[in-house]
Every structure is written in structure tokens, then in C-alpha cells.
Queue: 3 jobs
Job 1
Amino acid sequence: MWLSSTAGSGNIWSMLLPFVLMFAIFYFLLIRPQQKKAKELRAMLNALQKGDRVTTIGGLHGTIDQLTDDTVVLKVNDSTKLTYDRSAIKSVIARAESAE
């Protein structure tokens, strides 16, 4: 009887090992890269400033005219201004020249 109880506890670890390995693989291949990309996107959105040339997730190219915490006003041409959520900015094409 005492042999079956020690063999049973070793069997539990051999059953749990594949689940631990699957979680580790999912973490390093899926979860961690996604968190890194989200962190880079947050940093890019926080660094936006007036005069930056940007692209939206819809493909619109424009220059930032006004910024608030939640919205961005893009100047598309000389007379057209469009308001977008800050999260709709996909990438920065060119940074504004800093006045130094």
C-alpha cells in the first residue's frame, strides 16, 4: 500500500508537466510579445505632439493640429480638420521640429 501512494504523487507531477510547458510556450510566444507591442504603442501615443505627421488606423495621413488627453485634431489639407480618438493613431511618419 505504501508503494502506491508514492507512485501516485510522482504521477501527478508527470501529468502537470505538459500543462506547465504549454503555459510557458504560450507566454513566451503569444502573451509577452503582445504586451511588449502594447507598451510601445502606449509610449508612441503619449509622445504625440502638435505638428507630427501621422497615419490613422483607417489609412488617413495628416498633421496633428490640436491634442487633448483623448482626442487628436488632424489637419488633412489647408482647410480640412478632422477629429479622431487618440487611440486611432497607428504610426508617426515624421516628428515635428522642436523649437530650440
Note: The chain has a mean pLDDT of 88.
Job 2
Amino acid sequence: MLLVAVLVSWLVSGAAAAVSALVGAAAYFVPNALFALRLLLGLLGPVKSSPLTFFVGEAFKLGSAILIMGLAAWLGQDWLVWPAMLFGLLCVLKGYVLLLMFRKLP
């Protein structure tokens, strides 16, 4: 979904929109991937995960997504395309819906 958002934004509005969509998608994808990796390591590694680990990971994920978007808004004032950034974020947030539609999730 990240690639779809970047490609659509680039085709519709150009390079600045594509970069904005990439930033928006990465703002959720990267923290979510790190959280999933942490949970996987807790499942397979010597240190077991606890419910507290889950909630701390969720807080980290949400906080870092807000931080990335805030930094993008602050540093990218000249080139940031807000609709494209929000489109990228929305595509990654709702990507699981397509997996459910095509029966790729149990």
C-alpha cells in the first residue's frame, strides 16, 4: 500500500506529493514494523513479552508516528503536500482491509 500511495501521488501531483506520501506512509509503517519485530523477538527470544510490553510498544508506536508527522510538518514547510501525506498515512493504516478482502488474513 505504501508503494501504491507513492505511485498514485506521483502520477497525480508530482515528485513533492510522492515524497509527502512516502513520509506519511512511513510515519506509520516504520514504527509498526519495529513494534511487530519486538513482539516477534519476545515470542521467539529468551526474554518473554508481557502485557506491559505490548502497551509500552503501542505507546511508542503512536508517539513515534506523531513525532515523525510533526517533524515532517516542521521541516517540510516548503515542499510538504498535506493531502498526499495524509493519503499515504491512510493507505498504510487501512492496508489490512485489502488483505481481508482478498482473504490473505485468517
Note: Residues 2-101 form one domain.
Job 3
Amino acid sequence: MGIAGEMGELARIEISERDEVVVAHISGEIDLANVALVRRRLMDGIPNQATGLIADLSGASHLDSSGVHLLFELARALERRQQRLCVVAPPDALGTRVLYITGFHRIVPVTGTLEEAVKVLGAESSAAQA
């Protein structure tokens, strides 16, 4: 499934599936002006049969506190649906530092690459089935 959605002028989200995981490539800015649209787009893009969501922030140019709050909310919502969240935030990406400052990385796995995130969610899925 390759759906692209515009979130105003600030953010772009492209959703695809990889194995049983939904991957949302997020580029541009995530802030108070568009966070509600981003939230709706992400939640609408995750089918119930998916094991989880990878939010790839490697293309995000800005992530303010409302964007970080969205990630915390998303993790809780997915947990209620028995799904997992993993965030791709390369060390040199603008939003990575704030994820560590807020302690987000202690709640949700944060990886540097998409391949690492797929492995993390695959390993968690296998452990849950055992």
C-alpha cells in the first residue's frame, strides 16, 4: 500500500507496508499547526492486522513539543490495540535529541535506520507469539 498524504504545507506522510509492519515516512515539519492532521493520518493508516508502526522521522525537518506529545500518544494508542511503535531517528536528525531529552527512548524503541526498526518490531512480534 503506497499512499501519500499532504498535511498542509508543513508535513508529508507516505505510508507503506513492510512485512506485517506499517511504515510511515514523515518529512517536513510537525508542530502545533498540523499535529492533529498528522495524528489522524497515522492512526488511519494502521490496519488492525498490522503488528506495529514504524514512524520514520529521518526526513523530518522540525519536531516541536506537540510532535513529541503525539509520539507518546501514538505509543499508548497502539499499545491498547496490542500493536507496537518504533521510531527511526538517525543521530544527525533534528528531532533525535529531543526524543532522548524527554525520555521517549525509554518507552519506545528509537533506531537509527529503517532496517533496524523492522528487526526490532519483528523480534518483539516473535517474542510475543512465543
Note: The helical segments are 35-44, 65-80, 96-101, 104-107, 114-129.
